[in-house]
Design a protein that fits this description.
Elements lengths: L4 E2 L8 E7 L12 E9 L9 E3 L10 E5 L11 E6 L7 E10 L15 E6 L2 E6 L9 E9 L5 E10 L3 H7 L6
Antiparallel strand pairs: 1-11, 2-6, 2-8, 3-4, 3-7, 5-6, 7-10, 8-9, 10-11
Length: about 180
């Protein structure tokens, strides 16, 4: 999709799902654990500190962004982790949401190149908005995958934003949306 913006049927995006898959660790190795993370930014400061961050252990204060499925091992059965984002219900106080994926580093240093069959899919209903296999960020431990922005009309759009980082999940949440792309 490149850097083209994607929106839905003229009125912008509604309910979007970010789906993550990866294969489990080889026998005898510690579990490989990836997480979807979303950082929400205010209209007044879209590149500052996130107003809130949603990940495995949390959801947005109003319930518009949450994890509907979570895995700590991968499983190898397709998309095992899912985050739902309801842009049609998100407060007008928010103008930007950056979504990324981070690899837990508790089993030793791991990059996307070390994770078999990793992939992310972003859909709105049955419509595929973005897909990626993390090959372009193979040496990274975390990566942004997309940036959702609210346009002047109030409609939400998605821009593919696959960019690698070398940080653990905690540090990644602080830096994932601070750099202008």
């Amino acid at each position: 999709m490149g850097s083209d913006k994607v929106s839905g049927r003229g009125q912008g995006l509604g309910k979007v799902e970010v789906k993550l898959k990866w294969d489990p660790s080889p026998f005898g190795e510690s579990a490989r654990h990836l997480d979807i993370i979303a950082a929400t930014y205010s209209v007044d400061d879209p590149y500052g500190r996130p107003v809130y961050v949603v990940h495995t252990e949390s959801r947005s204060p109003d319930g518009t962004i949450n994890m509907s499925r979570h895995s700590e091992t991968g499983m190898g059965f397709g998309f095992v982790e899912v985050m739902s984002l309801e842009f049609d219900r998100l407060s007008s106080a928010y103008g930007r949401v950056v979504v990324g994926v981070a690899i837990h580093q508790n089993g030793g240093h791991r990059t996307f190149g070390d994770i078999a069959n990793a992939g992310v899919l972003v859909v709105e209903g049955y419509r595929q908005l973005l897909t990626d296999d993390f090959s372009q960020v193979a040496d990274s431990t975390a990566a942004t995958i997309g940036e959702f922005t609210r346009g002047a009309s109030g409609a939400w759009e998605l821009r593919e934003l696959v960019k690698g980082f070398d940080s653990d999940p905690v540090h990644f949440t602080a830096e994932m949306g601070s750099i202008r792309h």
